[in-house]
């Protein structure tokens, strides 16, 4: 099984990284270049894209590490930093997804409250709190991550070792509670009520606005499904690891299965960061109108650069100006 992981996992992570960097960078460019004032949804989605971009940007370090059979070559400081960033952005991504669901729920079911609850400055403050919370929740990576020689692998690995098993249990409970058990019911509640409002409102069934709102609600459901699909296996592994802590599963077989499963489930969860730009960011009201000119501009520039590469160097200098 480990030979299969060494062979397949680097390619899988590389695809996730490439798609995630392209998708989330494109999203951030759209939000940064837009001329209109950012809405609450724009603020949440841009922070979501930033969190996902940071997440996938850390994956090349683990690609190289898996290729070298978990030998860590980047030093202890990078071992702590990379895993802190990954942990931080796991929490931030989940919470920003929750905020987007809540925002869609408020926009559709309680539009008269937008003047207070949905102000941009309020949204920015909430985002700041989430970033700080993400740093604090991921701080165990700084405390307990170090580069250690692992005899079973015969390499110096970036290893997470808790001072006692109580820390491991607290970590598992925090990941499950903050990263799954709280956000999923909230997103499910919002999605359920959005769907009910759309089904019962005659006004929203007619005209372009009704079509747009139904599409936004559908995207909320799709993203919720994608989030559960990507992260549920990891949460199951966390639960099984907690049971293993209490020696529910005797013998070494379960420990081996959990190690393999943890590798597969973790990177399946990471793929959610590359899916988010394609599944969710369209909820931004003017995203399509803004992404189309940006795409045409990039393609046109690429064609012009291809054409000018055939002429003398002076034309290349003029073009770059």
Description:
The chain is mainly α and 321 residues long. It has a single domain (2-290), classed as Up-down Bundle (Rhopdopsin 7-helix transmembrane proteins), CATH 1.20.1070.10. Helices cover 79% and strands 4% of the residues. It has helices spanning 2-33, 40-57, 59-67, 75-109, 114-117, 120-137, 140-144, 165-181, 183-200, 207-245, 253-279, 287-308, 313-320; strands spanning 145-150, 155-160. A two-stranded antiparallel ribbon has the order 1-2. β1 and β2 (155-160) form a beta hairpin. It is globular, with a radius of gyration of 22 Å.
Helix content: over 70%
Mind telling me which CATH architecture this is? Answer: Up-down Bundle
CATH topology-level name: Rhopdopsin 7-helix transmembrane proteins
Q: Provide the number of structural domains.
A: 1
Summed over residues and divided by their number, the pLDDT gives a mean of 79
GO molecular function: bradykinin receptor activity; C-C chemokine binding; C-C chemokine receptor activity
Membrane topology: Multi-pass membrane protein
Function: This is a receptor for bradykinin. Could be a factor in chronic pain and inflammation.
Subcellular location: Cell membrane
Quick structural overview:
This protein is mainly α and 321 residues long.
Layout of secondary structure:
Layout (H helix, E strand, L loop, with lengths): L1 H32 L6 H18 L1 H9 L7 H35 L4 H4 L2 H18 L2 H5 E6 L4 E6 L4 H17 L1 H18 L6 H39 L7 H27 L7 H22 L4 H8 L1
Antiparallel strand pairs: 1-2
